[in-house]
Amino acid sequence: MTDLADRQKLSYIAAQAADARLNVELETEGMTLNIGPQHPATHGTLRIIVRLDGEQVIWAEPSAGYMHRGYEKLTEVRTFPQVTSLVNRIDWLGSFANEVPFILAAEKLMEIEAPPRAQWIRTILFELSRIANVSLFLGDLGVQLGAITPVFMAFRDREYVLNLIESATGGRFHPNFDRIGGLKDDLPEGWITETKQVMKKLRNFCDEIEALLFGNEIFQSRLRGIGVIPADVAKQYGLSGANLRASGVDWDLRRDQQLPLAYDKVDFKVWTHPDGDSFARCWIRLQETREATKIVDQLLDGIPSGPVMAKVPRIIKVPAGEAWVSTENPLGEMGYYVVSKGDLGPFRVKIRSASFNNISIVPWVLRGVYVPDVISILASLYFILGDIDR
Amino acid sequence: MAKLSDATNETLALPGDALREGVVTALREALGAGLIDALIKPNDDIWVRVSADVWQQAGRVLRDTVGCDYFCFISAIDWMPSPFGRSEDDPTAPPPERDTAIKQGYAGGTTRMQVFARVTNLSKHFGVTIKADVPDDAPMIDTWVPVYAGANWHERECHEMFGIGFQGHPDLRNMYLPTDFEGHPLRKDFPLLARMVKPWPGIVDVEPLPGDDSEEGTE
Q: What is the pTM of this model?
């Protein structure tokens, strides 16, 4: 531990002791507070039960399950190509990204690979869904802290990205575009030029948000030093994505594994932050959105020509076996453990969604924080309800 | 203090199979006969199966010796073939004959239920899938919460969905289902109730596409 960390520790202990003295003097009684199920900070229906001592949380427990749809059971009665329409609805803000790891797992079992052009377009759409997802986070973050303007900017600029996804896939929210062996269609005409213009707009949006929010003094004082998650705790709880990188762990599945996607063809930076607080998590997401626009730009310049679909049988039977594929989704590591028995449909699919792990740290991280910080910490952890409940 | 990384897109070669064999050797040294089976797929992944009584110890070995300090998930598999098939039977016809033999997957198995988990080594870029058989009559296994704190919610989910008990778990309440819910939905003998109430409409929708006589190939 450095001197700085020691000083932080001492001031933390002093603050705790002061609070404890105050509580003894005032003889405060505990109180249980329900945050949610309907609360703007919960992006759906997550209920958080907190036990308060004065303004301080002494115990917190999220209560999920208001939206459990049983996808793991449903996959067992679907054929492999039908599963994508289910998993689209897991993280509904970045739907296309949900399809990719499942299709990759099925392709791994079948020992086929999509043609290069399909891999590139997959990667582009993957990053576009990341931009659509995280740009909404950046706007929504303001609302959680009392700033209304950013959310309008976010909805305005996300619309451009959704239009792009719609014109390429036909679906704004649930593209269902990925197929075993490739993609449903090729890109429409003029899409590449249009995408480049939109990427410029999105970079402007990132600059605006950075100037408006991240430089704001209130914003900083609400987030800095709040909800600190050390690296070893983050790893134990299986945090992933920006939440893990904000704790200083340099781990990004786009870079650190080999998948038949085009990430190894582009040059991008994996951002990390040593602080592990709420501000770091938000800051990482901002940088990643910007980085994603650059990835898309680079990919657009080099899309190879060729077919977008490999030769696959019309009736897809996946050979028996087990495969695990995970990708770096907008919310973090999303993976599918697919067990096939050589049938038309999977025998068992374990869906490892990012938010489930990211939210399981809430009882740990909320202990000892003040009530207003509960909202900002939840916002900075960034979860989608469908991604917790599945 | 963690350092700010400036690593930019360094392409990492897949970890060699020597590394994977090293993982299995380390587990065998630490667990002895507790390690029952191991499967290494070249250039791909590792599956190991341990006996249920060393499950927690295996977690510790993976975390401390093998360096897999990143917890990914815990879940279970019910290897019994579903008595309902894919819930597409015609309700008016007599139920068809189905294969009831239990066949386990990679790294083998002897019981119907298996608990499996995945942990990752973030510095050497590999993951391990570890399985353990749980006895059919009393599905119980030790908890991983003292090893990986994140196992808490995964074990709760596994408990309600498969009815597997985790010894030493601090709080095995239901995550999703009501407290008085009966049955374990992800077990294969639990019917998908929506399909029981209303049969799958797909069974009437079997008209072949015009001009579609070959199964192979989309040009």
A: 0.84
